[in-house]
Amino acid sequence: MTRVEIEYCVPCGMLNRAQDVSEAILKQFGEDIDEVALVTGDAGVFVVRADDEVVFDKEEDEYDVDAIVRAVKPYVGAAA
Questions:
Q1: pTM of this structure
Q2: Which among 37, 6, 25 has a CA at the least distance from the CA of 76?
Q3: Among 19, 31, 42, 56, which is most exposed with the fewest C-beta within 10 angstroms?
Q4: How far is 21 from 64, CA to CA, in rounded Å?
């Protein structure tokens, strides 16, 4: 099963974004996801990983919850 990790910057106040992404992933994939973990970080980090592969990095990608969910989808299908 797929493990998703959302690493977010605590000092930057990105907890709400991390929660929004987590909720969207769980709503979309439900029981097909093994775990969605929120991991605290700093230095402006906001990175989403699916099975240890980076699928979103705010340094390179525009923040879009739907796009992040779409980026996770291939990992969910591969694990099924």
A1: 0.93
A2: 25
A3: 31
A4: 9
